[in-house]
Amino acid sequence: MTSLTDLTIAGIRDGFRKGDFSAREVADAFNGAVAGGKALNAFLIETPEHAVAAADEADRGRASGELRALSGVPLGIKDLFCTAGYQTTAASHILEGFVPTYESTITAKLFGAGAGMLGKLNLDQFAMGSSNETSAFGNVISPWRRNDGGTAPLAPGGSSGGSSAAIAARMVPGATGTDTGGSIRQPAAFTGISGIKPTYGRCSRWGVVAFASSLDQAGPMARDVRDCAILLENMAGFDPKDSTSLDLAVPQWEAGLSSDLKGKRIGIPKEYRVDGMPAEIEALWSQGIAWAKDAGAEIVEVSLPHTQYALPTYYIIAPAEASSNLARYDGVRYGQRVLPDHANLQDMYAATRAAGFGPEVKRRILIGTYVLSAGFYDAYYTKAQKVRALIARDFERAFEQCDVLLTPTAPSAAFGLGEKSADPLSMYLNDVFTVPASLAGLPAMSVPAGLDAQGLPLGLQIIGKPLDEQGVLNAGLAIEERAGFTARAGKWW
Questions:
Q1: What is the pLDDT of residues 364-421, one digit of tens each?
Q2: Which candidate, 443, 438, 440, places its Cα nearest to that of 476?
Q3: Helix H or strand E encompassing 252
Q4: What is the value of pTM for the model shown?
Q5: Does the annotation count 183 as an active-site position?
Q6: Which end of the chain is more exposed for a tag (fewer CB within 10 A), N or C?
Q7: pLDDT at 117 exceeding the cut of 80
Q8: 138-183 pLDDT, tens digit each
Q9: Contacts 24+ apart (CB under 8 A), 286-293
Q10: What CA dihedral angle connects 472, 477, 480 and 486, to 10 degrees?
Q11: Which residue from 186, 303, 177, 229 is spatially nearest to 8, judged by alpha carbons?
């Protein structure tokens, strides 16, 4: 019998319903995997009692014929989602000790569908990072290692690095992620799993710690496309508590899955062939195009002429919004408070923020404060918003010629921890292929498609029209079936 921790979410759901195993057996197996995976530092807190309680309820429900969509399925929750009664830190010291009295809408939906929680997953501090090296609670280490026999620790991607590492290491079957500029897709590519960022507004952001409000979007991460569809169905939906939530019915994405792309046109944006792109990324992209043709799709070249401005635009808008959002952390209402002797209120604010925020968060707050300051607002922030509108228009015109776009997810495979931490600009370039879709609010997905020369996973990205998650998932399924990606990290932890 396949190990329970090797099962996908669909495999757990269906096997549990058939009576092949109990939900308690599943919870115990994954709780054991979590307990045995501490070397990866993927979890900030473990919550075995939550997973067991949900499993016992699922077992009772099965006995009485009351099954829910995720009965018997335990999940990992990125520690950016507020969870009632469980510490929520956003991987920052400034929120250490903060225990929400309320549940985020996303976790409320997942738990309401029967899912249990195995623990809260590590991330880049306030979701700011591409390697999970900015967490105040230590780096997450990817379960993958290069095939040269070395033991150099590798980045699991960021900011959802705890989620990606935990799924790749079979410690959870699926997890929540958030994506502001690629924080679901890039870590998915780095660890050989799938992840989808839905259309902005599909999933409620209520109860999710804010980074950049016009960009942040929650989404699922899992082993394959079907599991992403299952989770997304149980995460999406209108929420009156979030003013950006879309009041639309949630499609049945799993039932609509089809890898037949006959009649579909796949766009290849020529501006994504950036200078210095590694040959193996180029080769993987060409292979992806061949797979799309094999699935029946027509390939068309399209142009996104403002692509080169996406990254600088993102790194003006996102820090600007972050500087505003993070102003609420002042030592008064949430988490940590530093109160020096004889300090006044301003002294307490300054001491709390100096002690609580990490270097990358401070860097982005300073950038954001600068671009929003008097005299520079129009020169930077207003201009960036105009460029953002041009980038979104590029996509609108491209989608007049095609149904979805196919691109690489990241410009490289996973890099070693510490290799880029001294060069923020080099780190920011990791998001060069994912940021444009975020600025336009489009659904986009990464699926594992191959290995590089060092035996590390590489991903392909599918970008869709607004609200066309089904088209993205279907193209992702077509790639997934043809790639036949079965590689997994050898267990060393």
A1: 999 999 999 988 999 999 999 999 999 999 999 999 999 999 999 999 999 999 988 7
A2: 443
A3: none
A4: 0.97
A5: yes
A6: N
A7: yes
A8: 999 999 999 999 999 999 999 999 999 999 999 999 999 999 999 9
A9: 287/449, 287/450, 288/406, 288/449, 288/460, 288/479, 289/406, 291/478, 291/479, 291/482, 291/483, 292/261, 292/266, 292/406, 292/475, 292/478, 292/479
A10: 120
A11: 229
3-state secondary structure of 296: coil
Nearest CA among 123, 192, 190 for reference residue 156: 190
- Map tokens 């043809």 to a residue: 482
Quickly tell me which residue has 């306030």 as its tokens: 126
Distance CA 454, CA 174 (A): 26
Instruction: Give pLDDT tens digits for 21-66.
Output: 999 999 999 999 999 999 999 999 999 999 999 999 999 999 999 9
- CB 93, CB 351: distance < 8 Å: no
Edge-to-edge order in the sheet of strand 404-408:
43-46, 116-121, 74-78, 174-179, 217-222, 194-197, 444-451, 457-464, 404-408, 265-269, 298-302
**Tokens (6 digits) for 409:** 């997810």
Rounded to 5°, the CA angle 90-491-473 comes to 60
Catalytic residue selected from 71, 78, 142, 446: 78
Q: Is 119 helix (H, G, I), strand (E, B) or coil?
A: strand
Would residue 159 show up in a list of annotated catalytic residues for this protein?
yes
Among 229, 159, 237, smallest CA distance to 196 is for 229
Catalytic-role residue among 92, 130, 135, 183: 183
Pairing relation of β-strands 265-269 and 298-302? parallel
Set 71, 159, 160, 194: catalytic member: 159
74-78 and 116-121 strand pairing? parallel
Which is nearest to 180 in space by CA: 130, 125, 219, 217? 217
Q: How distant, in Å, are the alpha carbons of 147, 249, 284, 316, 409 from that of 457?
A: 12, 35, 11, 31, 11
Q: Cβ of 312: how many Cβ atoms within 10 Å?
A: 14
Question: 81 phi and psi, to 5 degrees?
Answer: -95, 125
Instruction: Using alpha carbons, select from 326, 244, 264 the residue that is nearest to residue 462.
Output: 264
